[in-house]
Amino acid sequence: MYSKYMGLLEGIDLRIDKEFTNESFRQTVRSFLKQFKSLETRYNYLLDLIAFEEYLTNSEGLKLFNYEKITRDHINGYRDFLVESYAPATLHRRIASVTSFLGELVELKAIPNNPAKGIRKPVSRSLRPSNGFSNDEVKELLESFDEEDARQLMWKCLYSTLFYHGLRVSEALKLRVSDIQTVQQETAFIVHGKGSKYREIPIHEETLKLLDSFLENYPREKDGFIFAHSNKSLQAKAGRIVRAFSKPVSRDAVHKNMKSTLLKLGMDIDRSTHSTRKTTISALFEQGVQDHKIQTLAGHSNPETTLRYKVREDRLAESAVKSIKF
């Protein structure tokens, strides 16, 4: 029993040394884990921290020892990543582990506040029909935005991009003007996914019309984010390039806009921004599109992740993307 205890303790230390390169941070991790009496619990917390760092590295280019740079958007992004790939129990445990660790950093006065505190976790259910949108609902949502108003036109472009292309919200928000390119004689998005991966997705004609109007009337630099509010204003500058679109709107802002729009329209608010992606992928299955093509569109590395979207009921039979052709 003693040898097993010492073996696990040594294994934890070796794993910390292997995964984390900053010596000071290693000591912080060791100090955090020591509060747990059970070595199995310590090891599970360590694995959860390693998983979070892997996500930060692949999606944001950050390491966990850059904790002062971790924001609520990063936590929301990690939660959405877990929703797509893991069971609810795993999601809740991993978010709880990260929340506890960041709370420890607050206690140590290493960071002023815990960006994961109070983070909204999805309830333990899987792809309920109410989490998606019907064709009529998507049309009503898109038509609710006034194209004569710059901000509302931007939101309409964003939702059109999400519904018609199945992008993750984080992927859509990272799109820059330079990511609209001609590929094989098709106008396409160059979508930057996790890590250094990217994929080319043809832009649906409805979205393309909206984007053409938006970018013509409210221009920005080629490396400017498409879905960004100007720091000055969103007013047209008489054809002059606006140089104030260096930061995209936040994931929280998208979430709040969706909730307020659904409330205004009297729709079920039991949806998240991820519901747009569910709607697109599930509808493509119902359309009879081949599994591997949907996997490529969605940017899933594991085909089993894509197949989870087949589990749906009749509510989404009328889909927003019935007219999509790839």
Write the layout of secondary structure elements.
Blueprint: H1 2-19, H2 23-33, H3 39-60, H4 72-85, H5 88-107, H6 135-143, H7 150-165, H8 169-173, E1 180-183, E2 186-192, E3 198-202, H9 205-217, H10 251-265, H11 274-287, H12 291-298, H13 303-307
Antiparallel strand pairs: 1-2, 2-3
Helix pairs in contact: 1-3, 3-5, 4-5, 7-9, 7-11
Structural descriptors:
disordered N terminus, mainly alpha, hpI Integrase, Chain A, 3-stranded antiparallel beta sheet, 326 residues, 2 domains, 3 strands
Instruction: Give me the side-by-side strand order of the main sheet.
Output: 1-2-3
Second-tier CATH architecture of the largest domain:
Orthogonal Bundle
Give the N-terminus to C-terminus distance in angstroms: 60 Å
Give the rounded overall mean pLDDT.
82
- Mind describing the biggest β-sheet? 3 strands, antiparallel
- Write down the domain tally: 2
Order of helical and strand elements: HHHHHHHHEEEHHHHH
Can you offer a commentary on this structure?
- By secondary structure, this protein is mainly alpha-helical.
- The chain folds into 2 domains: about 1-105, no CATH class; about 130-315, Intergrase catalytic core (hpI Integrase, Chain A), CATH 1.10.443.10.
- The protein is built from 13 helices and 3 strands.
- It has helices spanning about 1-20, 25-35, 40-60, 70-85, 90-105, 135-145, 150-165, 170-175, 205-215, 250-265, 275-285, 290-300, 305; strands at about 180-185, 185-190, 200.
- Strands 1-2-3 form a 3-stranded antiparallel beta sheet, with no helix packed on it.
- A hairpin with a 5-residue loop joins strand 2 (about 185-190) and strand 3.
- The longest helix is centred in the N-terminal third of the chain and has 22 residues, at about 40-60.
- The relative contact order is 0.11.
